[in-house]
């Protein structure tokens, strides 16, 4: 009995998810250059021919994953747009991101993938601008606002932004490296250099 169109689409969707999961795992571990198409197909449990039906090149898969990671940063932007006090916004941001890190490896993999893409130059200028400029500008403005009302420590807001996101990226790398031995620090610890506690 032939498969229905719906069954075919479900199979295609399931196969694509396997490829995406395998690609994310390998690219986050090894980067684009050191990851082979056969390696992705093997980990996904599909043939290379089937892999090529979904993605013409490993670069195409990498680009899709990087775009997914950057689009996922929209949640961070939404938190940063809040009109709440800067310390409240930062605590919400840290809680959200650290909870995600604790719950699954994919968040860590996507953060590491962004780092690989920035280092390799495999991120489009438009995505780089969306990730770097918009996110960093919002965070810098939030820090300035918190400094002006005495909630946040004095210091260069851009450097403090870099330190915050570098800490998250570093934690993501440690989670993937240490696996079960990883213990996520508390939001208070991550924000200790930013927030002036009363």
Give a description of the structure:
- The protein has about 200 residues and is mostly helical.
- The chain has a domain at about 60-190: Tetracycline Repressor, domain 2 (Orthogonal Bundle), CATH 1.10.357.10.
- About 75% of the residues lie in helices and about 0% in strands.
- It contains 10 helices and no strands.
- It has helices at about 5-30, 35-45, 50-55, 60-70, 75-80, 85-105, 105-120, 125-150, 155-180, 185-190.
- Helix 1 crosses helix 4.
- The longest helix has 26 residues, at about 5-30.
Structural class from helices and strands? mainly alpha
Shape: elongated
Fourth CATH level, the homologous superfamily of the domain at 58-190: Tetracycline Repressor, domain 2
CATH architecture call of the domain at 58-190: Orthogonal Bundle
Q: Give the mean pLDDT.
A: 89
CATH class of the domain at 58-190: Mainly Alpha
How many beta-strand segments? Answer: 0
CATH fold-level assignment of the domain at 58-190: Tetracycline Repressor, domain 2
Instruction: Tell me which oligomeric state these chains represent.
Output: single chain
Order of helices and strands: HHHHHHHHHH
Which blocks of ≥5 consecutive residues have pLDDT under 50?
A: none
Which percent bin holds the helix content?
Answer: over 70%
**How is the main sheet built?**
none
* Distance between the ends: 71 Å
Report the C-alpha radius of gyration, rounded: 19 Å
Number of discrete helical segments: 10
- In percent terms, what proportion of residues is strand? under 5%
């Amino acid at each position: 009995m032939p498969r229905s169109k719906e069954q075919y689409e479900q199979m295609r969707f399931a196969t694509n998810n396997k490829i995406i999961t395998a690609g994310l795992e390998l690219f986050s571990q090894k980067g684009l250059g050191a990851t082979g198409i056969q390696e992705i197909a093997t980990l996904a449990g599909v043939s290379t021919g089937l892999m090529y039906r979904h993605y013409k090149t490993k670069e195409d898969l990498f680009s899709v994953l990087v775009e997914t990671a950057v689009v996922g940063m929209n949640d961070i932007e939404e938190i940063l747009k809040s009109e709440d006090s800067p310390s409240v916004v930062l605590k919400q941001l840290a809680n959200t991101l650290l909870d995600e890190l604790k719950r699954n490896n994919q968040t860590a993999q996507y953060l590491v993938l962004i780092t690989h893409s920035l280092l390799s130059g495999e991120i489009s200028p438009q995505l780089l601008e969306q990730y770097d400029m918009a996110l960093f500008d919002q965070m810098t403005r939030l820090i300035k606002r918190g400094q002006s009302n005495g909630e946040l420590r004095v210091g260069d807001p851009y450097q403090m932004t870099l330190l915050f996101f570098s800490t998250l990226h570093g934690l993501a790398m440690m989670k993937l490296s240490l696996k079960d031995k990883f213990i996520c620090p508390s939001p208070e610890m991550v924000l200790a250099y930013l927030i002036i506690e009363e």
